[in-house]
Amino acid sequence: MKKELGILFWMAMMMYTCQAVSNLHPLILIPGNGGNQLEARLTKDYKPSSLLCNRWYPIERNKEGWFRLWFDPTVLLAPFTTCFAQRMTLYYDQEKDDYSNAPGVETRVPHFGSTQSLLFLDPNLKNCTVLIESSKIGLCLTLYNEDHNIHGTPSGIIGKHWLCRRQNYVRYGLAPKYHPSHVGSKFLKDLKYLVEKASNSNGGKPVILVSHSLGGLFALQLLNRNKPSWRQKFIKHFVALSAPWGGTVDEMLTFASGNTLGVPLVNPLLVREEQRSSESNLWLMPNPKLFRSEKPIVITPNATYSAHNIPQFLNDIGFPEGIHPFKTRILAMMDQLEAPGVPITCVIGTGVSTAETLYYDKRGFDEQPEIVYGDGDGTVNMVSLLGHESLWSNAKNQTLKTIRVPGVTHTEILKDDGAVGEVVGEIFGINSQFKFAENVNVQ
Length: 443
Hints:
- By secondary structure, the chain is an alpha/beta fold.
- The chain has helices spanning 2-20, 78-88, 116-119, 126-129, 135-143, 182-200, 214-224, 228-234, 249-257, 268-277, 279-283, 310-316, 323-335, 382-385, 387-392, 417-432, and strands at 27-30, 38-42, 67-70, 90-93, 98-101, 105-108, 150-152, 207-212, 235-241, 298-299, 304-305, 344-350, 354-359, 370-374, 400-406, 439-441.
- The strands form 4 sheets. A 7-stranded parallel beta sheet has the order 7-1-8-9-12-15-16, sandwiched between helices. Strands 11-10-13-14 form a 4-stranded mixed beta sheet.
- The longest helix is centred in the first third of the chain and has 19 residues, at 2-20.
- 46% of the residues are buried.
- Mean pLDDT is 82; it is low at 1-22, 112-122, 125-143 and 152-169.
C-alpha cells in the first residue's frame, strides 16, 4: 500500500508541475557503458578468428549489412562468445596514440535519435533485456515531448530532428589535452552541438543533463572543457545517477579475470581480452585521488596492489600493453576531475554488497578471486559514488546535492520505482524551481 501511495504522490506532483510549467527545460540523457544496443558491419578487411566466425555470420542483417552485436543471445554460447569478443575488441596504436575498432569491423548505435536503443538491449527479448522499466519514466516521457524537449547522446537518446550521426562511443573513452581521441573528441563535439541546438530551439532555455554511470564522466568532461560563460548559458542542472567519479574495484576484477556483467553461462576468460582492450574500462580503474594508497585492493601470494600501483598490476596480470595508455592518457584524465561549475544532483544506491578487496590464491588470475565486500551499489564503491562530495564540497559557487536510495543497485536505479521517482521528481523540481534539501535519504 505504501508503494502505491508513493507512486500516486509522484504522479500527482508531476502532473501539477507539468501544468504549472508551460515550457520545460530540454532534457539530454547520457547512458553508461553497455547501456544501449550496438550494431556492427563487416568489410572486406575483416579476418575471422574461426570458420564459425566468418564474414557471413550472422546471416540475418539489413540490406546495408548491419547486424545486432550487443545484445545478441548467441553470445551465451562459447564459440559465438569468442566471435563477439573479437568484433568488440579495440586496438591501441602507440605511434598514433589512439584507439580504433578491429580491422574490418564498423559499429554504430541503431535508432539514433529515439528511445528505442535505450529501453531494451534486444527488442526481441524485451522481458530479459529491459534497461528502463518504470511507470514514472513512462509518465515523464509523456510529459516531455520527445521530438522537442528530450534528446540524448550517441550512447543514448537524441531528438529525431537533431543529430543523426551513428557512431559507437560505449567502448571508447576520452583523452587529455594534446592527445588524440578521434571518437571521444567527436562525441564531445556532437554533445556540445546538441546542447546548444536543444537550448536554441526551446527559446534559449538551458538544458538539464541526466547521466547514468560512465555517462556522468563524459558529461563532466563536457562541462570541464567549456568556459564558465558557456555553462551558465546552456546548462540548467546536471543530474548524475550512479556516477563512478573515482572508478571501481570491480574494474580490477574485470582486467584480472574477466567479467560476465551478469550474463549467464559465459566463461569470463573468453571476454577478458576484449574487456582489457576497452579504453573506457581502463578509465574506470580505481582513481588514486579517491582510493587511499594504504588500502589494498588486490592481494596475491606474491604482491599487493592498490590504486597507486596499477601499472605494476597491469604488467603482472599479463597486460603490459595497457601500461603506456594508462600512464599517458588515463592518469591525466583521472586527475581532471574539476567541479562541473553548474548545480549537480547525484542519485546513488547504497547498502549493496560491493567488491572491495580481491584475494587470489596460487592458481593465479585465470581463476575468480575470493571477494571481500563493502558498501556501494553493487558495482561502484561508496568512496567513488561520493567522490563529488570529497572533491567539490569546498569548490567556489558549486551547488551539490546527494540523494541516497538504500538497497538499489547500479542498474536497478533505472528501474526501481523509488529511485526513478526521486530522479523524476528532481527533474520536475528543477523545472518548477522547487527548493530541495541538499542531501536526501530515501527510506
